[in-house]
Amino acid sequence: MLILHTSDWHLGRSLHGADLGGATAAFLDWLGGLVEERGVDAVLVSGDVFDRAVPPVGSLNQMSQALARLCAVTRVVLVPGNHDSATRLGFTSELLRASLTILSDPLDIGRGVEVHGADGEVALVYPIPYLEPDLVRDALAEGADAPDPTPLPRSHEAVMAAALRRVRTDLVRRRGRGEESAAIAMVHTFVTGATPSDSERDIQVGGVPSVPALLFDTLGADPGVEPLGHGLDYVAAGHLHRPQDVAGARVPIRYSGSPIAYSFSEAGAAKSVTLLDIGGGALRDTEVVPVPTARRLSVVAGPMEQLLSPAFDEVAEDYLSVTVTDDARPPEMVARLRARFTHALVVLHQPGHLPDTAVAVAGAVGRSPREVARDFFTEVGGRPLDEEETKVLDDVWTEVSREVGA
Asked: What is the pLDDT of residues 174-203, one digit of tens each?
């Protein structure tokens, strides 16, 4: 059995004003082709399908077309992430056909979704949507149906532990009656030990934004509770955009990462989806499948003359963050660079010469404001003012003096 793990599509997202609709369309087309070519038995989407709670119509159409293609050939299981609206994403969940499962209600956590492979293998998938502690700490508390239940602590660890205890309850029941199918949890959270990038939205609550990896071994049980002989086989994680494995637990925990780079901190990072080979009631192997890049992201820096030279021809068509290091800000810097690099999305001036503010402040004592101002522009600009600039500054001071004298 082959199961594909992906997440963080963020349909509708832009990059510093650049529309990424074409890039997401190319990814979804590639994904559909991969699923068809490899005969994938199930696709797990671990949250943040959309970039915002109320996605634009174009993103809704992209999603609809992608799901129609995938569901025609495979089973899709999907959970909302912190960017999605769980209510909007799951409002038709009770009406969906068997090939598509959207689990958005926290009260449905612990309901194992049986996925069947073409080879007769069966896997149990436990979808867990993004859990905002303030919204679910009452619903997931022990004895939530009692007249006055005690809410869970206000932390991601507490609500995830409660969710995993529901998974454990179902697994204990199934294992007790002889079911030894591989078990996969889908989560959208920040697991301790993983590496974030600049493009994820902060989910910090109460100062603790993460959950410990060990939680997935214990399935939220207290230390004295006997561990399951056969617990989870894999955790399909979403939220972080760098593809990575997370250490700290026996069970393999992996972020598939976003299929597209959404910040320049991800420049040069390989994007991928993960294929799980399930057989004999266990995870046999994983395969990282690279996602083709529609347009690369690159970060470049250097003097203006060098940036405009053929030395940077290789990145001329990339999405770029450009930093100019000349001591003085070159004239028409942004316009010239964007004429050279069509997709220069960020243009910064960061001179190699850094002003010594301590010296400038110390040297201001006993000197006229006009002299201090000239030295300030020289220190910050990396060069003395020319004759025209000096005249402008002197005229300003003359006008200021006249106003003050009046």
From this structure: 999 999 999 999 999 999 988 877 766 555
Cα separation, 81 vs 262, whole angstroms: 16
- C-alpha span between 351 and 324 (Å, rounded): 7
- Residue carrying structure tokens 């529609």: 294
User: Which residues are within 8 A (CB) of 325 and not within 5 positions of it... i.e. 6 or more apart?
Assistant: 301, 302, 303, 350, 351, 352
124: which 2 tokens? 């149990």
| Residues 258-295 as b or e (16 or more Cβ within 10 Å = b) | bbbbbbbbbbebebbbbbbebeebebeeeeeeebebeb
Angle (deg, nearest 10), helices 369-381 and 387-405: 140
Strand partners, 274: 5, 288
- Closest C-alpha among 43, 41, 60 to residue 52: 60
Q: What angle do CA 80, 28, 124 make, to 5 degrees?
A: 50
Answer whether 232's CB lies under 8 Å from 216's CB: yes
